[in-house]
Amino acid sequence: MKTLPFYKVALGAIALTALPAMAQLNIQTGIAPAMRGELTTPISHANTANLLGQSVAGVPSINANISNINRIPTITINANQSGSTRLDVSLIDDFIDDVSPNARHYPPNFPNRTTEFVTGENIKYLSDWLEPYANANDATLDVILRAAKINGMARNLNIGTDYTQRANKYMAKAVNLAPNNAEANFLYGMMISEGGGFIEGQKYLQKAASLGYVEAEQSLAQAELLADNHAGALSRLRALQSQHPTNAQIAEQVRIVENGGYYIWNIKNDNINVKPLQLASNQ
Question: What is the DSSP string of 152-218?
């Protein structure tokens, strides 16, 4: 029995087949990227036997165990408005959470070049995997936001023009689809302001901040710094620190600005566990 490497083990198994009632509606469920060579469809053969529960003459019995288990929640979302296609985004969301401290903002910050390269390869794969779903006319906001995040990081890593264009497209698409969504406004405003459009990006960041998105306030401070408004940035961050006194990141950003720094997201973060892609031969 071949054991394939997995990025992380989720307790909730990826759904491989639809329930009978769903099948009547032609619903595709549990579609997921195979980032670590995962098997996402059943493999069967007429002469196969389950060696974990069945003895076969001449074949040694198998003892298996799993160590270093990391549990992540199973998350499924609608890919289209009708809900006829559902995606398992558990590994995508876990990856985004893992690398965001290093790649969400510009300039990116990685502990070494190898980690940055491996992250970039994963981002390219996930961007390409999400593309047909996010580019569909009936794509859901859940899919579009994930495509925006992945391609936004690709843009920060200078992976290529195609990915930068995708970032622009999906961030704008998210705002058009949900103009009052805090995260959509934040992502779009962050991308514009960090690309030099301080005034244009500011209105989206301000809207996100008014909707309670704390990171938007931090990005407004970054935009003020890049527009040479050092005093305004420091005042904003100090006010934010008073509202969130236990937030270590905001405290560090205040220190950076007080010491004359201009990039508040340039905070070292070595707690990244990204793994190389191991695509299965049938992918």
Answer: HHHHHTT--HHHHHHHHHHHHHHHHH-TT-HHHHHHHHHHHHHTT-HHHHHHHHHHHHHTT-HHHHH
